[in-house]
Write a sequence for this structure.
């Protein structure tokens, strides 16, 4: 990971908000650059979506952070920014990434539609029939895809593929304990669970991941839009 | 509605019309579930049986109240479906955890021991991330956790993934259908990144997520009320 920590700050609420705003603007400029200057290839669309979602997470953090949300909300945002960063690194590294995301998307759509079907009581409903047809369409697309993989890809596998296992091992467990109703979250000492120390880690790591995402994408496109 | 009684074993299960096709009931069902869960937690806390099992049940119930409250607020505010899915998934995981601890006293002990193990695991991950002084502090804390754990009765770890808990709970079929749905929203999945925006945040899916959360909250309520009645 790009470890230029000079921009990663933890100061007053206003200072942190200012940093997050700069970061969000930088991600926004990258999105605009891709939309306005680059061809609409699969890879560019994937990178655009990852950067757009990273910006959305940073804006969420900036909106929520000043109102003292519980640490689990900050941990969730931080973990998402880490996963987005891994996805970007994977996309930049692998030529087959677009096919793989398309393959995963087809499975995601099947899973979502099967969940929706489970809630419907009438099997003869026209909407139900339509959903079944769409599921069939996605299954065929997956069968015909050149990607053959077991889904889902665990984050640990993705981390290994982009040489980020060390970062994964260092903090992913921390995020997981907050994002799930773990024993730590349920029965842990409240002062520790909601401590300022962990809050600082989430705020700092969020900035590190989002900044690394912006830097890598900027470098890949050979543009200097990354910061400030 | 549950009315306050001195003996928690006499709590009654409320009648709640949980029906996916009745969206007009969503908000009132949230309120009723919240009210009833809060009452049950309060009874457990005031119960004369202050056992580890009751502590664990009370904590799970209390967290379910918090998640349901978030779900209610996010639903009212029209928050993105990611938020609703996160709360819904957490209520489901709490239901699984409740089933797990009610399996055996050993499982209760596992849950009681687990926060120390979790905290130790978090700190172990961080060793090496910081400077030498901070690393030494981390190592000292890890040692402290080991000492505290040594003083507790031994117990296996609480299963780390929801799939294992679902197997214990006999809920694999349900798990395979709904957990995947939650996951697409709780992680930055291809669905969330590249799926159709109007479907991702559709009201239909929002309602589905709330409906599953309410069903699982009702299961938690039912399980606890029945457990209290049995203990009486």
């Amino acid at each position: 990971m790009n470890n230029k920590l000079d921009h990663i700050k933890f100061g007053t609420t206003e200072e942190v908000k200012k940093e997050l705003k700069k970061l969000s603007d930088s991600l926004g400029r990258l999105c605009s650059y891709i939309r306005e200057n680059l061809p609409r290839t699969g890879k560019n669309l994937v990178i655009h979506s990852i950067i757009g979602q990273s910006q959305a997470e940073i804006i969420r953090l900036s909106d929520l952070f000043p109102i003292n949300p519980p640490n689990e909300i900050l941990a969730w945002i931080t973990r998402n920014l880490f996963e987005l960063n891994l996805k970007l690194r994977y996309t930049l590294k692998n030529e087959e990434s677009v096919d793989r995301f398309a393959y995963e998307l087809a499975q995601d759509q099947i899973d979502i539609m099967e969940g929706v079907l489970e809630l419907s009581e009438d099997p003869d409903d026209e909407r139900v029939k339509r959903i079944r047809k769409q599921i069939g369409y996605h299954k065929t697309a997956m069968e015909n895809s050149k990607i053959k993989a077991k889904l889902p890809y665990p984050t640990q596998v993705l981390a290994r593929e982009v040489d980020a296992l060390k970062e994964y091992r260092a903090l992913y467990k921390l995020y997981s304990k907050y994002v799930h109703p773990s024993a730590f979250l349920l029965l842990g000492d409240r002062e520790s669970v909601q401590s300022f120390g962990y809050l600082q880690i989430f705020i700092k790591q969020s900035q590190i991941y989002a900044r690394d995402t912006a830097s890598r994408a900027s470098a890949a496109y050979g543009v200097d839009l990354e910061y400030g | 509605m549950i009315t306050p009684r001195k003996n928690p074993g006499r709590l009654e299960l409320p009648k709640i019309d949980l029906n996916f096709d009745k969206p007009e009931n969503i908000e009132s069902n949230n309120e009723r579930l919240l009210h009833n869960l809060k009452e049950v937690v309060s009874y457990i806390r005031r119960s004369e049986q202050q056992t580890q099992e009751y502590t664990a049940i009370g904590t799970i119930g209390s967290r379910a109240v918090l998640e349901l409250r978030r779900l209610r607020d996010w639903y009212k505010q029209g928050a993105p479906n990611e938020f609703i899915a996160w709360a819904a998934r957490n209520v489901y995981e709490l239901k699984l955890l409740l089933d797990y601890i009610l399996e055996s006293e050993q499982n209760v002990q596992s849950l009681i021991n687990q926060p120390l193990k979790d905290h130790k695991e978090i700190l172990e991950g961080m060793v090496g991330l910081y400077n030498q002084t901070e690393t030494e502090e981390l190592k000292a804390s890890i040692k402290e956790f080991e000492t505290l754990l040594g003083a507790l009765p031994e117990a296996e770890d609480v299963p780390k993934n929801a799939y294992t808990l679902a197997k214990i709970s006999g809920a694999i079929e349900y798990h395979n259908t709904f957990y995947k749905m939650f996951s697409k929203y709780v992680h930055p999945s291809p669905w969330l990144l590249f799926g159709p925006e109007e479907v991702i945040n559709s009201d239909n899916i929002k309602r589905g997520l709330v409906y599953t959360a309410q069903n699982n909250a009702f299961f938690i309520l039912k399980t606890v009320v029945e457990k209290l009645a049995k203990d009486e």
